[in-house]
Amino acid sequence: MKKIIPIITLIPLLLCASSQLLAQEKNREMRKPPQEAFTACEDKTEEEVVTFTTPNGDEMEAKCMLLNDELVAVPKDHTPPQRSRSRG
Question: Residues 41, 64: contact at Cβ < 8 Å?
Fold first, then answer.
């Protein structure tokens, strides 16, 4: 009986940790630019200025930049996300 109690308390911790990992993965996916940003740079060159409409309906001026070997419209006021430093 004494062994069952630690196992029962361990299950919620494992579920919590796995849901946290899934949330982090989803956040990474959400950082991808919208399709409109890729479409705006079709047939354009790097550093070319374009305008496109965001999924929210806002018109945005941007510059075509390479992202993972693809041109994508990056807004002029865009600041890249801060990457957390790994400890080790």
Answer: yes
Does the CA dihedral 6-11-16-20 come out positive or negative? positive
The structure tokens listed for 12 are: 């919620």
What is the DSSP code string of 53-82? E-TTS-EEEEEEEEETTEEEEEETT--PPP
Residue-level pLDDT at 52:
94
Length in residues, the chain: 88
Closest CA to 62 of 39, 83, 82, 32: 39
Distance CA 76, CA 60 (A): 9
CA torsion sign for 26, 30, 32, 35 is positive
pTM of the model: 0.56
Render pLDDT for 10-62 as a digit per residue (tens, 0 to 9): 666 666 666 666 666 655 555 789 999 999 999 999 999 999 998 899 999 99
